[in-house]
């Protein structure tokens, strides 16, 4: 595990088209520190695509994505300061501005649309005339400050993200970009810091009835140097007094950080039965029918009333423990008793940190047998090296997600493969129907390809709790829906991939065979009218004699965007960042790869005052790891 001593300051670039950087650090007093940098940026790249032009930056994929506004790139600089610092102030001063006259308007950003199976919603690319009649954005930079783990070394830090914008004036078709600038960051050393010894790497949280079944996993983890401790939910409830049961779990995690310096949290337990469980006690929590409770958000994204989520399960709640100044992040910034509120009727929005302070995964087991089998899968996977011929394959399954702008799912998978250069690509694409270059994503082809074994398996398309699907080229006709019962044919034994699935609700772990209809605040709305025993992602993960070793997907609606300048966005971009973390950043522990992806995504959420962060926030909240966060991908050699 990556554990090192806390460094005073580390400055890194997550995404930037910088040409040169000159840095100095000064201790202004016993408590005040200052960082100064002289920055040099590369020029943007402009491409004529017909009606519009696109603008991109070298080596930068971060973008402003306000629908209707000019679709513009940005440079993102991320700095890791000591944990608990206070009074962080950033001053960014442009020195030289590059002005370019272009022949056409910059293409507008498209609106995000849900990737739900069976519903075709076209993404619109329409100009906001008001934003095109002025300079957009009207500021040169934005700043995000939070607390989280530094992916380079898993040291908890204060994270400062500085976003440097490109501007466009639609009235005279001028593009403005910064050539040189000065940056100053000052901060005060705080009194709060995590100074505990590295006593444990991971804590497992489970009900008492699962304790015996988990002993094999704990012994196995200890053997490979992952110091692990088990804590029961019953003991946590007896010791802690929080607003509700999920907060008591989170308060324990905070203490585990400060007493043991843990990095990973494994939650073991989902709903406690298949038939008559109610998924929620109230709008904030699911506890009564859960082995390990879940937090529900109160984010209402009702742009599409027929498919919207008034909140969703978020295990990321347990990962986001601190906010700026090392203050406990309770996800209820206005203290109104409504957690993670956003556009919640009659309630004020909550301001959230979102950076992960621990890496969290869940085994959504409903009984002891599932616990025993998942422990067996993990132990065998890590003990018997998977780094053999089958592991060196990466299978990508995708097609055309939206009509009109190319095959978005395939584009995302191709971008993933660019990071995974050590793996042999297997492309099961809808476009192969026309090109004849390989298999198409029919049910038979998916099953036969997947059970042959691969280190990684990527599905990029549409979904619901029971189905994943994509479309043939042109985006109107669905290929076969790949539903739960296709997994009954998976007998890939020990050839277990890490699966990443792009779509809506594939990881919605609160479904049951009981089709209740209690409305949007409690009960069956969350199953979307589907009476099924388990969701798509968990069915794959806990599959006997095969399936995956872990599955990552959305508990809620996943969103996509289209357009020639931004074919990969939102949920698909989060999935892409997982492969960036593994392939380029060499984060080969499962939780580390997920954490690096989350940290980068949060750092790139635009802070432009006009940008609505709601869907980005939901994407972070709802991206769920069903698996062991301390898993060594490919096993120990």
Question: How would you concisely characterize the structure shown here?
Answer:
Helices cover 20% and strands 28% of the residues.
How many H/I helices? 13
**Poorly predicted runs of 5 or more residues:** 1-15, 516-526
The number of strands is: 34
**Biggest beta-sheet profile:** 6 strands, antiparallel
Would you tell me the overall average pLDDT?
Answer: 89
Using only C-alpha atoms, the radius of gyration works out to 24 Å
Helix/strand layout:
Elements: E1 10-15, E2 18-27, E3 32-41, E4 45-48, E5 53-56, E6 63-64, E7 72-82, E8 86-101, E9 113-114, H1 129-132, E10 135-136, E11 141-150, E12 155-165, E13 167-169, E14 174-188, E15 202-206, H2 211-223, E16 228-232, H3 233-239, H4 245-260, E17 264-268, E18 285-286, E19 294-295, E20 298-299, H5 316-319, E21 322-323, E22 327-328, E23 341-342, E24 359-363, H6 368-383, E25 393-398, H7 408-419, E26 424-429, H8 432-435, H9 443-450, E27 456-460, E28 462-464, E29 467-469, E30 482-483, E31 498-502, H10 536-541, E32 550-554, E33 559-560, H11 571-583, H12 590-604, H13 614-622, E34 623-626
Parallel strand pairs: 15-16, 15-17, 17-24, 20-23, 25-26, 25-27, 27-31, 31-32
Antiparallel strand pairs: 1-7, 2-3, 3-14, 4-5, 6-7, 7-12, 8-14, 9-33, 10-13, 11-12, 13-14, 18-19, 21-22, 28-29, 29-30, 32-34
Helix pairs in contact: 2-6, 7-11, 11-12
């Amino acid at each position: 595990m990556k554990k090192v001593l806390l460094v005073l300051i580390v400055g890194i670039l997550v995404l930037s088209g910088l040409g040169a950087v000159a840095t100095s650090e000064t201790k202004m007093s016993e408590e005040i520190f200052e960082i100064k940098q002289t920055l040099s940026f590369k020029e943007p790249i402009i491409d004529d695509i017909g009606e519009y032009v696109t603008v991109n930056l070298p080596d930068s994929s971060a973008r402003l994505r306000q629908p209707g506004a000019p679709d513009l790139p940005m440079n993102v600089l991320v700095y890791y300061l000591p944990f608990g610092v206070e009074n962080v102030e950033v001053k960014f001063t442009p020195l030289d501005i590059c002005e370019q006259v272009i022949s056409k308007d910059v293409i507008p950003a498209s609106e995000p649309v849900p990737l739900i199976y069976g519903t075709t919603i076209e993404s619109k690319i329409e100009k906001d005339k008001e934003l095109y009649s002025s300079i957009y954005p009207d500021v040169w930079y934005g700043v995000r400050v939070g607390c989280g783990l530094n992916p380079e070394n898993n040291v908890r830090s204060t994270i400062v993200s500085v976003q440097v914008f490109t501007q466009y004036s639609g009235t005279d078709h001028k593009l403005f970009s910064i050539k040189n600038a000065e940056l100053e960051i000052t901060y005060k050393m705080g009194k709060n810091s995590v100074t505990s010894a590295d006593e444990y790497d991971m804590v497992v949280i489970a009900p008492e009835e699962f304790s015996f079944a988990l002993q094999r996993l704990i012994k196995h983890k200890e053997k490979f140097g992952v110091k692990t401790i088990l804590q029961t939910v019953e003991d946590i409830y007896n010791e802690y007094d929080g607003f509700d049961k999920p907060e008591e779990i989170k308060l324990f995690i905070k203490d585990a950080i400060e007493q043991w310096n843990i990095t990973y949290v494994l939650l073991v337990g989902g709903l406690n039965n298949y038939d008559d469980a109610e998924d929620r006690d109230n709008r904030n929590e699911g506890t009564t029918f859960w082995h390990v409770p879940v937090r529900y958000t109160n984010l209402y994204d009702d742009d599409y009333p027929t498919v919207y989520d008034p909140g969703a399960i978020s295990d990321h709640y347990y990962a986001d423990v601190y906010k700026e100044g090392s203050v406990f992040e309770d996800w209820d910034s206005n203290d109104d008793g409504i957690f993670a509120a956003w556009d919640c009727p009659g309630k004020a929005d909550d301001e959230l940190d979102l950076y992960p302070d621990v890496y969290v995964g869940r085994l959504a087991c409903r009984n002891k047998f599932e616990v025993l089998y998942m422990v067996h899968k993990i132990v065998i996977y890590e003990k018997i090296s998977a780094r053999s011929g089958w592991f060196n394959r990466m299978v990508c399954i995708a097609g055309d997600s939206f009509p009109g702008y190319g095959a978005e799912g395939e584009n995302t998978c191709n971008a993933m493969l660019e990071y995974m250069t050590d793996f042999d690509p297997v492309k099961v694409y809808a476009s192969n129907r026309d090109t004849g270059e390989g298999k198409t994503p029919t049910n038979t082809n998916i099953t036969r390809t997947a059970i042959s074994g691969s280190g990684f398996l990527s599905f990029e398309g549409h979904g619901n709790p029971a189905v994943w699907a994509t479309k043939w080229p042109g985006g109107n006709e669905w290929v076969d829906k790949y539903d739960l019962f296709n997994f009954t044919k998976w007998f890939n034994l020990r050839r277990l991939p890490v699966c990443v699935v792009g779509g809506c609700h594939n990881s919605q772990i609160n479904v049951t065979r009981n089709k209740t209809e209690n409305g949007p605040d409690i009960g069956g709305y969350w199953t979307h009218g589907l009476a099924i025993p388990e969701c798509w992602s968990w069915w794959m993960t806990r599959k006997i004699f095969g399936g995956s070793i872990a599955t990552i997907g959305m508990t809620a609606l996943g969103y996509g965007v289209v357009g020639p300048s931004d074919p990969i966005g939102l949920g698909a971009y989060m999935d892409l960042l997982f492969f960036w973390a593994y392939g380029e950043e060499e984060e080969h522990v499962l939780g580390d790869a997920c954490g690096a992806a989350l940290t980068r995504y949060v750092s790139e959420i635009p802070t432009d005052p006009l940008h609505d962060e709601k869907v980005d926030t939901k994407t972070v909240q709802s991206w769920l790891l069903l698996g062991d966060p301390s898993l060594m991908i490919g096993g120990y050699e």
